[in-house]
UniProtKB/TrEMBL annotation:
Species name: Prunus persica
Keyword Mitochondrion: no
Highest classification ranks of the organism: Eukaryota, Viridiplantae, Streptophyta, Embryophyta, Tracheophyta
Domain FeoB-type G stretches: 247-304
Domain NOG1 N-terminal helical: 84-242
Domain Nucleolar GTP-binding protein 1 Rossman-fold: 313-369
Entry-linked InterPro entries: G_FEOB_dom (IPR030389), GTP-bd (IPR006073), NOG1_N (IPR041623), NOG1_Rossman_fold_dom (IPR010674), P-loop_NTPase (IPR027417)
Protein name: OBG-type G domain-containing protein
Single GO MF descriptor: GTPase activity
Length: 440
């Protein structure tokens, strides 16, 4: 009996030292090799292999979750491109609701409840809770895993603003998170009401009403989930730019032949048509030379106007030049077929050349097979012969410009050779910049 009591006391105090009487000396002594193993308590309510005693009650340590440290989201650590390819897959709102209803209806009441009313209200409360969670979890995933715009690379931040509209990205994410909170609130409210039902019939009625209310709440905000789906598809379709790989950016007025040159120089296959703003976004191709891969971007055309009046397509072009380490191939069309007069092209060219003068630069006059002996004059031209630089530009383009024709294949071989030299120089620039960043 005394041994049984000792064992029971040891169970109650597992930290107690194991002592034993020696027949060689009086008094107890410590057994050095003794090990105190976890004791499995026989009481169902307190059975746990690891626990803490708090005011006499047992609290499983598994339920006490350590606070996770917030991730460091400093711009230095998160700045980089490629965030759009990591966006979570967004399900259509109809599919989310259908899946949630189907899973919730499979929930059974807790086993062992004999009372019919208790069993029915238990089933109703569990189904409403499951429905609420099945709807809220995807919405929480979207809110947490879509990146905060302020931590994105400036180039990708510009793409969001110019493609989706300023503030639209954050607005949709905010509405999705607001929908999640409403679904959780309505779901908890009706699950609580169902759990308080006094009869089976009342529990069934409250379950039906609760499902209807949760479904109505979700449907009212389902449009925001579909808007987020559209945003994810749009951003995921954006071309991936490698900041460590040299990039050639083709710039010029609309319809001057940039897309045709991209098709000649790279693997990119942009649309080629005879109307302005054929290029409606940033198109990416690649050049493979001597086991090296270079990038080529086709950008929307620029018009003669100030930045405040530019449309989002033109601003995309300026964003590429501002935020990416690019070499510029500026395309001029002096044939009069692009729709922008040589005089206006000259003004645009001077502005862009001055703004991005630190970039490697190559001027190309396209459609040289269509050039005439006398320069093309538009009705809008003032006909001022005093500007000698403009007159020279109308005839031959900028000094040192390469004349090419895709139709007659004139100058294409020389163009490819110069482009490869530019991209190798751009690679050297990038490597030097990386070394400077490491040193600083």
């Amino acid at each position: 009996m005394s041994r049984a009591c000792s064992l029971f006391q040891l169970c109650q105090n597992p930290n107690r030292l194991l002592l034993r009487s020696s027949k060689f000396s009086k008094g107890p002594y410590l057994i050095p090799s003794a090990r105190i193993c976890p004791v499995l308590c026989l009481s169902k309510e307190i059975q746990t292999s690891a626990y803490e005693v708090v005011r006499g009650s047992y609290v499983p340590t598994a339920l006490v979750k350590p606070e996770s440290k917030p991730k460091d989201k400093s711009p230095e650590n998160l700045e980089g491109v490629g965030a759009f390819q990591k966006l979570p897959m967004v399900m259509p709102s109809v599919d989310i609701l259908y899946s949630a209803l189907r899973k919730a209806k499979r929930i059974s009441p807790t086993k062992g409840i004999a009372n019919i009313a208790k069993r029915e209200r238990n089933r109703g409360a569990k189904q409403l809770d499951a429905l609420m969670k099945e709807l809220a979890v995807p919405l929480r995933t979207y809110s947490e895993n879509f990146p905060n715009k302020k931590y994105l690379h400036p180039y990708e931040r510009s793409l969001i603003e110019l493609t989706l509209g300023d503030g639209n990205y954050e607005e949709v994410l905010g509405k999705v998170d607001s929908l999640r909170k409403k679904v959780v609130s309505v779901g908890k409210e009706h699950a609580s009401l169902c759990a308080k039902s006094l009869s089976k019939k009342e529990a069934e009625e409250r379950l039906t009403e609760g499902i209807k209310k949760v479904e109505e709440t979700f449907n009212r905000g389902g449009k925001h989930v579909d808007d987020l789906l559209h945003i994810a598809k749009t951003l995921r379709a954006m071309p991936v730019v490698d900041l460590e790989s040299p990039t050639l950016c083709l710039v010029g007025a609309p319809n001057v032949g940039k897309s045709s040159l991209v098709r000649i120089l790279s693997t990119g296959k942009p649309e080629v048509c005879n109307y302005p703003f054929t290029t409606r976004g940033i198109l990416m191709g690649h050049i493979i030379s001597n086991h090296q891969t270079f990038q080529v971007t086709d950008t929307p055309g620029l018009l003669k106007r100030c930045d405040e009046d530019r449309n989002n397509l033109e601003k995309l072009t300026l964003a590429v030049l501002s935020h990416l380490p690019t070499a510029i191939l500026y395309v001029h069309d002096l044939s009069g077929q692009c729709g922008t007069s040589p005089s206006d092209q000259f003004v645009i060219y001077k502005e862009i050349k001055e703004r991005f003068s630190e970039h490697l630069w190559l001027d190309v006059v396209s459609k040289c097979d269509l050039l005439q002996k006398s320069p093309v004059l538009f009705a809008t031209d003032k006909g001022d012969d005093s500007d000698l630089e403009l007159e020279r530009y109308r005839k031959l383009g900028p000094d040192g410009a390469l004349h090419v024709s895709v139709t007659n294949e004139v100058g294409l071989t020389e163009l490819k050779s110069i482009v490869h030299e530019m991209l190798n120089s751009q690679m050297t620039r990038i490597q030097v910049q990386e070394k400077l960043e490491v040193l600083t």
